[in-house]
Specification:
Layout (H helix, E strand, L loop, with lengths): L1 H18 L11 H12 L8 E6 L5 H9 L5 E7 L2 H10 L4 E4 L11 E6 L11 H18 E10 L15 H12 L3 E4 L6 E7 L1 H7 L15
Parallel strand pairs: 1-2, 1-4, 2-3, 4-5
Antiparallel strand pairs: 5-7, 6-7
Helix pairs in contact: 5-6
Amino acid sequence: MKKISDSQEIIFRELYNKHKGTPMAVSSESYAHKQLRYEHICGIFENEKNITIHDVGMGIADMNEYILKHYPENNIIYSGSDILKEYVIESSKRFPKHVFYHRDITESDCSDRYDYVIMSGVFHQRRDASIKDWEKYLQKILLNAFAMCKKGIAFNAITPFVDFYQLDVYYCNLPKLLNFINDELSRFFLIKHNYALFEFTVYVYKESIILNRYPQEEFKKYFKVNYP
């Protein structure tokens, strides 16, 4: 895992230094791309209020800017983590009242907890990592992110249903991903594959959250956790 994390740090440092002040500083094609991704990622909390959000791979915390603009009355406490120190420094300057961590989530002890853990663009840039190693890296991040959340996680990935291929990005193996989510995280998930980009967004929920949505006696048999 550390080899991939070190490589990712080098890749994003180069992008940051070369494209500082533009969306490409965090490997996003345009402002419109970022806004569309954020719209779908933020859909997981469905206008909930008084919640905590942790952004893994937050870059320069543009997601927080989006949340402040679109959810000003929701009292959302935002924080983030990134492997690139430069991103953490800039995020802290932009939003001094928020907490940002310079850390690798694959190595995190996952002791801190948040209502939702979100990840946007974290799994796109495979570069020189093998597909096998990249999928292990992805799975480790998802495992730790799900351990950190109290309600659920949201993330995006590049769809395999494209009209072009680039050798250095990861086109997600959807059946493999869904089997992993079901086997290792939760059977309660949602896939959003209905927007303009060659990407999709996934929500994975803690079982207790879905249980609370369906408290009827008839649905008890569908849950493993103790029914309230």
